[in-house]
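Predict structure. Chain length: 330.
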Amino acid sequence: MAHSDILSQPDRGLGLDRPQTEALLALFSRCDDLREFGREVIQSVVNALMDSQAQEACGAPRGSRSPERVNSRNGYRERSLSTSLGDLELRVPKLREGTYFPEGILERYTRVEASMVALVREMYVAGVSTRKVGLVAEELGVSSLSSSEVSALCAGLDEEAEAFRTRPIEGEHPYVWLDATYMKCRTGGRYASVALVTAIGMSSSGHKEFLGCACFDSESEAAWSEFLGSLRDRGLRGVRLAVSDAHAGLVAAVSRVLPGCSWQRCLTHLQRDIRGHVHSLAGQALAADLVRACAGQADADVARAAWDLAAPVSANLKLTTFANASRRMR
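Prediction complete.
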């Protein structure tokens, strides 16, 4: 559609006259992409809004004499605001008497917009270094984000994570899933492998909830006992069944810290163990299907019968792990 056709169409909500529309089209033609165009438009709109608010605070249009005037303008102060679209160069009006700040448009004492803060934090949590975060910000058109500023923006993450991790656990959670993974963490200026243990619970209403996590030097019985004890101290109660892998220390910790709680081996870990005993891809798929078919039965008697029927098949594949699981299900 030609520009002339666009200009001849009736207004659909923006309230732009022909010169304003032509100015927008000219701006769009100068921009390399929509992100740059959006940054320029937002920068112009925010500056116009601040001018309008300052004029309203003065009680009269700029440069005009009026008995209703209560103040006058005194230039601008330049301010840069980093956003996900790039740096905005803002001109905040100054008044001769008192001060003006665009509350509701900008936040005091911050030069980084909220969405940019969220983006920086997301990259930081994902393991991107502060230097690389600054490089990514430069690609977005943000030139004023240094490594120290990235660190400052992410400083509150530890406190937020700790508050979430230590919050009280409310209500009963009959079912709890426990697991651990090893990951690299920076401690004391160096990277080391640590065990991250986690717990997910299902409430009496059937909703899953992330209960907590903790880091330990190793996945030992002492570590699991300390972690489960912290969950109990925070209010974990009513646990009837714990599901996890077959780690001996974990199973012992469940028995000691959560008396009266039954334990069940995680079917996903069982599938992985069984697949590890089969060399062919077809056999691995068959083994996984056998576990899934047996465990997916809603009736306990049917589930036990399914395990019995699957045991001969597993014997042909030399799946001793599957046979042992079948005996336990009986």
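Summary: DSSP finds 13 helices and seven strands in the chain.
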